């Protein structure tokens, strides 16, 4: 009886609760100047990831497709990729503190995703909003890209904090267990580069998706938005190669780009006839 | 068997006095043999460093008698004819054991929490052990002291951070650069502190040192010692494209590097981060340069401030360390109590047996 009423959304709710606990613990770590090693936070995010994965697996089985079929599923997939990327990178002790910065982002995305309007019930027998292997590839790679951009923005935020402390001679700059700022910059750029490759693959896959004959592709709001985003990250990567913005300027740009992505993703999706017929 | 300690340290005696009592390592085994042959101690360890000279002895004598004899041994060994007042301290149990543990943990050192002393105590103990001058009591005491020092290092912040200007500079470099292994260091002016800082960076893996000084001979001499190269004082700005860390300590009365001079140089470096350590007084580097992107400027006050903050943290840990030491010493004292009781019981039964035999 427990099994029948405990749905994937309950699993996800528990995962979000653990993101919340991790956020609270992160505040404690911040108050302590990040001097304490971050094993506890890594463990909290690991438990959250397990619950989150259970939610996605259960949803996938119930809809018999890769669970990226509506906005709720797409949003949870984005946050799943952020935490998955963190759990891999966080195996390196000096990068474990990324979790303290990622958990508030994960909590915010999770709370937003739990809004009922994002997850209308699947009518029995009706096709999901998105379907097919190519659609799954398109959706999964793009959402993985967003996850990589997200964790890159988190690394950029850590860079800014540590750089500020070093510039203004704060004791926390030397006392904390943060990695060197040059390493944070490298991690942020590599994550963004990985995200850019995934976004390119996802957009290329999307270009070949079947669509109604009267549907305009190049003027679709979501397509325009995605290409704009692709160009933004391309420009940032090229400028970085040319060492043109300062490290601080680049970090701010990565955060602004990701905030823009988060704030406009759902709106453009709703406006897009291709994605929201 | 009582563990007694007697000695002088930087707390109690000036270096002129401490050096009179210092033991040359090669002569310590003979000194220990002499101490044991005289009957003063059954077991002994001599610790002689630049900041302390101490004798740890396990003795069957009473504490007061042992202190008098050990004092006499020290004075006659070093042919010291003057009066030794408070400069010489002594402790009996349990304070002698507390003292040993505190010294091993670096709590009695000139730089609180320093780790070199543990290695020095281990060397002194090994020397005594190898020559057969230790036994059950001192073996247990010293081994427990080493274990406690490791525990304190792991579970407290007593050894955390750097308390010298040079090592703070190295820590800052490690917080900025991904790795010191491919960093080049420019030393402008060849003073003591800048030399120590350069050495500290080299010891942590910095790639190379370039030295610029008004006296080219002095620059070459220092560069030779550090395995680097010297450049003319007028040409140091030309090295900026390659270098990552600058240590400046000239005697110039004005700024040798300001924002106007540094800004174009940063462009040639393609915005790579630059750490500037200005040890000079008056300062060599205009503080305004800290506002440039990717430039991190620290003067001697900033570095000393960080070192002082670390020292303050270490002092805050003292109480916790002393609690740990008190806990760790207890089993040694308990073992001594039960050994003393066993001795007394042994004496009592021996007395009873003698009485029984004489009755027969």
Shape of chain B: elongated
> Uncertain runs of chain B with pLDDT below 50, 5 residues or more?
344-360
Instruction: Provide the β-strand percentage band of chain B.
Output: 15-25%
- Number of spatially distinct domains of chain B: 2
> Taking all residues together, what is the mean pLDDT of chain A?
84
Number of helix segments of chain A? 10
Report the uncertain regions of chain A.
Answer: none
Cα(first) to Cα(last) distance of chain B is 34 Å
Reported by name, the CATH topology of the largest domain in chain B is Beta Polymerase, domain 2
Gyration radius of chain B, in Å: 28 Å
Number of helices of chain B: 11
What structural class should be given to the helix and strand makeup of chain A?
A: mainly alpha
Largest interface: A-B, 20 and 23 residues
Oligomer: heterodimer
- The count of strands of chain A amounts to 0
Query: Which range best describes the helical content of chain A: under 10%, 10-25%, 25-40%, 40-55%, 55-70% or over 70%?
Result: over 70%
Identify the CATH class of the largest domain in chain B.
Alpha Beta
Secondary-structure element sequence of chain A?
A: HHHHHHHHHH
What about the largest sheet of chain B?
A: 6 strands, parallel
State the fourth-level CATH superfamily of the largest domain in chain B. Glutamyl-tRNA reductase, N-terminal domain
Task: Summarize the topology.
The complex is a heterodimer of chains A (277) and B (360).
Chain A: H1 2-5, H2 8-31, H3 39-63, H4 71-89, H5 98-113, H6 133-167, H7 171-175, H8 181-207, H9 221-241, H10 247-271
Helix pairs in contact in A: 2-3, 2-5, 3-4, 4-5, 4-6, 5-6, 6-8, 6-10, 8-9, 9-10
Chain B: E1 2-9, H1 15-21, H2 28-37, E2 43-48, E3 52-59, H3 63-77, E4 89-91, H4 95-104, H5 116-130, H6 136-155, H7 165-176, E5 184-188, H8 192-203, E6 208-213, H9 216-226, E7 229-232, E8 245-248, H10 259-268, E9 274-278, E10 295-299, H11 300-359
Parallel strand pairs in B: 5-6, 5-8, 6-7, 8-9, 9-10
Antiparallel strand pairs in B: 1-3, 1-4, 2-3
């Amino acid at each position: 009886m427990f099994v029948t009423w405990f749905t994937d959304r309950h699993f996800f709710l528990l995962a979000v609760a653990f993101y919340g606990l991790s956020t609270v613990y992160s505040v404690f770590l911040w108050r302590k100047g990040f001097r304490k090693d971050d094993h506890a936070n890594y463990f909290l995010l690991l438990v959250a990831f397990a619950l989150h994965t259970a939610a996605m697996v259960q949803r996938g089985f119930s809809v018999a497709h890769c669970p990226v079929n509506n906005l709720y599923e797409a949003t949870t997939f984005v946050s799943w990729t952020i935490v998955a990327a963190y759990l891999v990178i966080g195996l390196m002790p000096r990068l474990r503190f990324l979790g303290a910065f990622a958990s508030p982002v994960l909590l915010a995305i999770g709370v937003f995703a739990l809004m009922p309007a994002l997850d209308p019930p699947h009518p029995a027998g009706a096709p999901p909003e998105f379907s097919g292997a190519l659609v799954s590839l398109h959706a999964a790679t793009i959402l993985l890209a967003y996850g990589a951009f997200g964790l890159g923005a988190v690394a950029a935020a850590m860079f800014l904090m540590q750089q500020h402390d070093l510039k203004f001679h704060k004791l926390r700059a030397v006392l904390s267990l943060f990695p060197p700022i040059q390493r944070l910059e490298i991690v942020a750029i590599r994550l963004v580069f990985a995200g850019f490759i995934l976004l390119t693959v996802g957009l290329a896959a999307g270009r070949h998706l079947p669509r109604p004959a009267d549907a305009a592709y190049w003027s679709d709001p979501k397509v325009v938005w995605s290409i704009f985003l692709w160009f933004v990250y391309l420009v940032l990567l090229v400028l970085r190669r040319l060492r043109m913005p300062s490290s601080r300027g680049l970090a701010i740009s990565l955060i602004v780009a990701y905030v823009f992505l988060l704030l406009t993703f759902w709106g453009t999706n709703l406006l897009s006839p291709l994605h929201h017929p | 068997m009582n563990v007694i300690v007697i000695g002088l340290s930087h707390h109690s005696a000036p270096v002129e006095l401490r050096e009179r009592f210092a033991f040359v390592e090669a002569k310590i085994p003979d000194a220990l043999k002499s101490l044991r042959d005289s009957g003063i101690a059954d077991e002994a360890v001599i610790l002689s460093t630049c900041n302390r000279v101490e004798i740890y002895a396990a003795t069957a004598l009473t504490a007061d008698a042992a202190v008098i004899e050990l004092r006499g041994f020290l004075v006659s060994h070093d042919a010291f004819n003057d009066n030794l007042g408070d400069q010489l301290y002594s402790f009996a149990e349990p304070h002698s054991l507390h003292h040993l543990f505190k010294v091993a943990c670096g709590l009695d050192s000139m730089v609180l929490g320093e780790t070199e002393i543990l290695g020095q105590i281990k060397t002194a103990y090994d020397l005594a052990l190898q020559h057969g001058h230790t036994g059950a009591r001192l073996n247990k005491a010293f081994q427990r002291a080493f274990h406690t020092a490791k525990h304190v290092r792991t579970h407290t912040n007593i050894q955390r951070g750097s308390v010298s200007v040079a090592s703070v500079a190295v820590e800052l470099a490690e917080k900025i650069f991904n790795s010191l292994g491919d960093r080049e260091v420019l030393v402008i002016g060849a003073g003591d502190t800048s030399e120590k800082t350069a050495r500290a960076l080299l010891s942590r893996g910095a790639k190379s040192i370039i030295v610029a000084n008004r006296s080219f001979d002095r620059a070459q001499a220092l560069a030779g010692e550090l395995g680097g190269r010297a450049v003319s004082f007028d040409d140091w700005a030309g090295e900026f494209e390659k270098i990552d860390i600058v240590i400046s300590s000239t005697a110039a009365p004005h700024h040798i590097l300001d924002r106007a001079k540094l800004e174009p140089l940063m462009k040639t470096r393609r915005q790579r981060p630059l750490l500037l350590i200005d040890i000079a007084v008056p300062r060599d580097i205009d503080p305004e340069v800290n506002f440039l992107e990717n430039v991190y400027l620290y003067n001697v006050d900033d570095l000393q401030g960080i070192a002082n903050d670390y020292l303050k943290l270490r002092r805050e840990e003292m109480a916790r360390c002393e609690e740990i030491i008190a806990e760790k010493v207890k089993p040694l004292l308990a073992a001594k109590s039960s050994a003393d009781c066993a001795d007394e019981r042994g004496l009592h039964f021996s007395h009873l047996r003698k009485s029984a035999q004489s009755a027969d």
